[in-house]
Structure formats: structure tokens, C-alpha cells
């Protein structure tokens, strides 16, 4: 396909996708209150907002199943319009659908962590099998004298690297959570960053892959924005693991199909930092309670840090006590700043030329 034809095709596809995504947003706005009542009164899927002891009524949870279902309807419908790269398209949908189902099962049955990690790896298999992109790793300039070559062919090990990236993204949203709006806020911001990156790269050598990534992430951005409307402080609904696993896998799949996994990790800097400092508790080196959340003080209505190793408590330790709504907003700003840093690293010629030779493009 010639470049001009490709641009015309992309323009028509994006217009249709925007229309479908907008419809998906309003569908979620309509359906979430309906399913909220079902979860509360019939499904008995609800929880207590532990940071609001004055709030006696339960909060419906697992509303991620609504946005996940609407999202899947949109991307499946779009197959009738987009016939490009159907192998990767269908594999991506399979991986996302699997994680949405796993998240909902976890909401209902409270599955153990080791089982969820195992199933997370299984969910990556469809996309790994369908992947037909490069498996060559470009060695950063400072390491070339040590390695002795400029590139390294990883072969099947590159697919192993992608599997770990996808599992990390899937679970990182889940462990960076616990206050109103945090899960949906970070997901919407990362999705917006991925959208911008895809639009910038449509003219690049992997424009078709970025178009596929855009197709997968735009409906997610729309549906997640609708859920954030209800989940922001003070939350009317909880998103549940059905959203966090669905969210992480969708963003990971967008990065893998678009061939920009390294850039995706730049957008995931807060989640990466949270994961690293959480390792002592995640591996049981120190006691790990079920909820590693800040402590609510009834006297002043503020959140105070606890001795749990995560970004929430570390942020409160340095910033001081915060109202839950203000804390969520500041963490959203932090997420935006990290995305801006990611773009600066990705598109700064000074930084790129320091780490990579000009003959190589910083892909991934």
C-alpha cells in the first residue's frame, strides 16, 4: 500500500473508530448505573470504602466487567471494517478477553496470587504465537565494548521478554491501587499517552502496527473514561480486578502489537517504581497484609502513611497527610509528568543519540 493510500485508509479508519468509541463511552455511562444495582442487590458484589468509615452503605464493585464487555463489542465489530493483520488482531482480542474473565473470576472467587500469575502468562500465548515482528535487540552504545556487537538476535527469548512485559503491565495496575480513581485515572492517562505516540508514529516504518495499536487502545480510552466518571472521588462504584487485569493487558497488548514495548515502560514508570519497592512484601520477606493502604484518620479526615512498601505510602511519607481526593489528583499529575518524561526520552535526539547509533531507530 502506497503512503498516500495508507494515510487515506488510516483517516477513514480513525473516523469510524472515533464514532464507535464515542458510542461506547455513552453506552458505559448508561449501563454502569444499571449493572451497579445488579451487583449491589442481586449479585452481592460490593465492598466497603475503608477510607470512609462514615459511609455505611456498601459500594458496588467489579464494574470493570461493564467497560470490558462494551470494549470487546467495539473491537469485534471493528473487524468488519478493518481487515488488516487479522491474526494479531484476533490474538490481541483473545488475550484481553482472557484477562477480563480472570479478573471477574478473581472478584467472585478471590483467586490466589500464584494462580493469577500463572494464568497471566497463559493469556499471553495467543499474541506471542501470532507475533511476526523483529526479535533483534539493539545494544546501547555504552555496552557495545562489553558485548562486542551493535545488535543481538534474541529469537524465542525475545518472545519471553514480551511475555514478562505483558504480565508486568497486567499486574502492575492491580497493585498500584486502593483509593478512589487511582486505577481508572492511571489507565486513562497511559492510554492517552499511547494514543498520542501511535498518532505520531503513523508515518514511521511501523505505521501499520501503530494503527493496529491505536485501534485497540482508542475504545479502551473511551470506555475507561466513562468508568472513571463513576469511580473518581467520592466513588459511586469500585472497578474490581475485572478492570485492573483488563486494563493492564489491553495496554500491554497495544505496546506489543505496536512494537514499542520499551516506550510503553516509560509510560509505566510509576507502576514500575511501585512494583520495585513492593518486592519485599510481594515475595514475603516482610509481612504483607491483604490491603497495603494508607490509614484514615477520623479526626481530620486525612490519609496517613503506613509501614507498607508502595508508592501510595511513600508519597504520603514525603508529602504529608492528604485528603483522598487530593491524593488521587496528585498521583494523576505524577502519572502525566512521567508520560511527559517518557516522550522526552523517546523523542529527545540528545538522549537517543547518546544510547543508540544514528543508524538505528529507537523502536519498542
Structural commentary:
- The chain has 364 residues and is mainly α.
- It has one domain (16-355).
- The protein is built from 14 helices and 6 strands.
- It has helices at residues 3-41, 64-78, 86-109, 113-130, 144-147, 156-175, 182-201, 207-231, 240-257, 261-267, 269-282, 311-319, 324-347, 349-355; strands spanning 46-47, 59-60, 136-138, 151-153, 295-296, 303-304.
- The chain has a two-stranded antiparallel sheet. Strands 3-4 form a two-stranded antiparallel ribbon.
- Strand 5 (295-296) and strand 6 form a beta hairpin.
- Helix 2 runs antiparallel to helix 3 (86-109), helix 3 packs antiparallel against helix 4 and helix 3 runs antiparallel to helix 9.
- The radius of gyration is 21 Å and the shape is globular.
- The two termini are 23 Å apart.
- The model has no long low-confidence stretch (mean pLDDT 89).
